Amino acid sequence: MSKLLVTGGAGYIGSHTLVELLNAGYEVVVLDNLCNSSLIALERVERITGKSIVFVKGDIRDVELLNKLFAEHVFDGVIHFAGLKAVEESVQLPLDYYNNNVYGSLQLFKVMSDANVKTIVFSSSATVYGDSLGLPLNERMPTGKPTNPYGMSKLMVENVLEDLYRADSSWRIARLRYFNPVGAHTSGLIGEDPSGAPNNLMPLISHVAIGRRDKLFVFGDDYITADGSGVRDYIHVVDLAKGHVSALDKLNKCSGMITVNLGTGKGYSVLEMIEAFSRVNNVSVPFEITNRRPGDVASCYADVSFAQECIAWHSKLNLDDMCRDAWRWQTQNPNGYEVAN
């Protein structure tokens, strides 16, 4: 059995990935500072899988804690989710994003190197492509200039990993570029529960549908898209989680660095998402068009052919599944993890 350190494992994507890792036979230690996550998520992962999780509350910038963890456990690798992730907030608080996402990653990689743990799956983002001149986005395209500090922080960490591999080819590195994860586990026990105001579309739609918000604000209807609203590649979080297991399987077979898009290959507009959610769940989602949001691009969707070729992975769940599972999570947990069921 392999043992993994999962940074940020109590968060939205982290908790869903824990389910897949535990079901695949991995042993996990979770390091999370709980700034945008909940211990209840880990308890529910244990309930879903029937397996136990070792949890350590702490920050990846705490080198003393990291050294202690790597001394106490023999890790076979690290899955690195920990970091701040709100695009709009990053425009307002760039120093916080570089401190958490870049400086924190540097501390983690140094401790890993010192401990001779050289397998890492990094949680990157499609934002590294910037406002690309071509769609769909494929991994061979040059990374652009990300339109916000969040994306830039992810690109900076990607570049660090590339230099690390160039200096020492015994590293096994997967840089996974997420598109837009949505949905929830089919049990309804774990899902997306942002602290404060949500920054992503699906929880905003869900909050309006359940009555926590009066209406949804659609940021712009003048983009060069079919209906004027922004287009994104939405991927079910369970499919995304399984992509991490597939990436680990690949790294376990050979050293090297792989860079893989995790998306569906299809873009949906904000207005199409509202329509689909309303139709699938038979609910009303009032909305109002407002100004564009700083840092957003018009369209972003993936070429996913390399994911199939490289890690034998492709998405299986469709838009209706995403909407249905997100609503199940929301109705079973109207206040998120605030009140444990």
Q: Could you describe the 3D structure shown?
A:
The protein is of the alpha/beta class and 341 residues long. It has a domain at 3-183 and 234-265 and 302-316: Rossmann fold. Helix content is 41%, strand content 18%. It contains eleven helices and 14 strands. The chain has helices at 12-23, 39-49, 63-72, 87-92, 94-114, 149-167, 201-210, 237-253, 270-281, 305-311, 319-332, and strands at residues 3-7, 27-32, 54-57, 77-80, 119-125, 172-178, 180-182, 216-219, 231-232, 234-236, 256-262, 268-269, 287-290, 299-300. It has a seven-stranded parallel sheet, with helices on both faces. It has a three-stranded mixed sheet with strand order 12-9-14. Helix 1 packs parallel to helix 2 and helix 7 (201-210) crosses helix 11 (319-332). It starts with a strand and ends in a 9-residue tail after the last helix. The relative contact order is 0.15. The mean pLDDT is 95.
Structural Rg: 19 Å
Task: Give a count of the beta strands, DSSP E runs of length 2 or more.
Answer: 14
Work out the helicity level.
40-55%
- The CATH class label of the domain at 3-183 and 234-265 and 302-316 is Alpha Beta
Low-confidence stretches: none
Q: Tell me what portion of residues adopts beta-strand conformation.
A: 15-25%
Which strand order do you get reading across the main beta sheet? 3-2-1-4-5-6-11
Please tell me the CATH architecture of the domain at 3-183 and 234-265 and 302-316 by its name.
3-Layer(aba) Sandwich
CATH topology of the domain at 3-183 and 234-265 and 302-316: Rossmann fold
Mean pLDDT: 95
Main beta-sheet annotation: 7 strands, parallel
> Given the C-alpha coordinates, what overall shape results?
globular
Which class do the helix and strand fractions yield? alpha/beta
Order of helices and strands: EHEHEHEHHEHEEHEEEHEEHEEHH
CATH homology superfamily of the domain at 3-183 and 234-265 and 302-316: NAD(P)-binding Rossmann-like Domain
Number of continuous helical runs: 11
